[in-house]
Design brief:
This protein is an alpha/beta fold and about 300 residues long. It has helices spanning about 40-50, 65-70, 70-80, 95-105, 165-170, 175-180, 195-200, 220-225, 240-245, 250-260, 280-290, and strands at about 5-10, 25-30, 30-40, 55-60, 90-95, 115-120, 125-130, 135-140, 150-155, 160, 185, 190-195, 200, 205-210, 230-235, 265-270, 295-300, 305. α3 (about 70-80) crosses α4 and α10 packs parallel to α11 (about 280-290).
């Protein structure tokens, strides 16, 4: 299987602390890097965890709050200093380009690479990026400003060829691709060798859901049904339900309920309020989640999760 990993670079909320950086993650699929959100300190975290910006060509921004986007000017400036030549694509709700262009023109006046903005709708989900192996879909969220989460979906790999069967029937190499795609093989005497006899199923395609700042929405579970790994903000403990609702955030119990109802395999919680900036308090957040969804873990800078 191709490597499919999630690197946590920042999991604090709007106010940074000595313990946590602001929101930022890297999805590494088959050694191609995709950034999700870009809080202050993003480029330092990339260097600290040995993630090369040269392999980063797409950045996905969930919403236009400073703790999710203000690392962009510095990151783009450093890319220019490194004499990058390949384009960088930035996907976000509408409005980011008009905010960022003055920064770019002042701090990166003649970049050696193209900076391409792709605005997306936050009212309905859509596929905003796709290549031969993976696609990225938006998931509308309920926050104080237009906001979307993202699902990274691996495309179902083709079946594996059974080499001993290929050799047994003397099938030439040029036919292997069409057999993997579903074709049968016809022998010179007219005998048909079924595709199923020549292949075995590939591993199930994997998926990762990143659910950024959002109030609880029971319908969200259906949008991310069956994902292997889910990151969901859990800014507040259960006793702050009113504050969570007022500020467009979720509690631990709500994050866990979404993972449970979505039948996710594993839940990562993050975006902790600075009021919980101690081991014991974060352990309390984890305990509240595990009471609803046992396979929950805490996000922390430097952790890497396999999807």
């Amino acid at each position: 299987m191709n490597p499919f990993k999630v690197h946590i670079l920042g999991c604090g909320s709007a106010r940074p602390t000595p313990r946590h950086c602001l929101s930022a993650q890297i999805v590494n699929y088959n050694n191609c890097l995709y950034a999700i959100d870009c809080g202050e300190g993003m480029q330092a975290q990339l260097a600290r965890h040995h993630l090369m910006t040269g392999k980063l060509d797409r950045i996905f921004i969930s919403h236009l709050h400073g703790d999710h986007v203000l690392g962009l000017p510095g990151l783009l400036s450093t890319m220019a200093l490194s004499e990058r030549t390949s384009p960088i694509h930035i996907y976000s709700p509408g409005g980011l380009e008009s905010v960022m262009r003055p920064f770019i023109e002042f701090f990166v006046p003649a970049p050696s690479f193209d900076i391409i903005f792709h605005p997306f709708s936050t009212t309905q989900g859509a596929t905003i990026f796709s290549n031969n192996t993976i696609e990225v879909q938006t998931v509308p969220l309920q926050h104080r400003v237009p906001c979307c989460g993202f699902i990274f979906r691996e495309k179902q790999p083709l079946p594996h060829i059974l080499r001993d069967m290929i050799d047994f029937y003397g099938i030439p190499n040029y036919a292997i691709k069409s057999i993997k795609e579903g074709a049968d093989w016809v022998m010179p005497d007219g005998q048909v060798v079924p595709h199923a006899r020549l292949t075995k199923p590939a591993e199930k395609a994997r998926s990762y859901a990143y659910l950024s700042d959002t109030a609880y929405d029971p319908a969200l579970a259906q949008a991310v049904e069956g994902v292997d790994l889910m990151y969901h903000e859990a800014t507040y403990a259960n006793d702050m339900l009113a504050s969570a609702s007022e500020r467009g955030h979720s509690t631990t119990g709500q994050a866990a309920a979404t993972a449970r109802d979505a039948h996710a395999r594993q839940l990562i919680i993050g975006h902790y309020s600075s009021r919980y900036d101690k081991d014991a308090l974060e352990a309390m957040l984890l305990s509240e989640c595990r009471a609803v969804f046992p396979n929950t873990v805490l996000a922390n800078e430097g952790l890497t999760f396999d999807v």
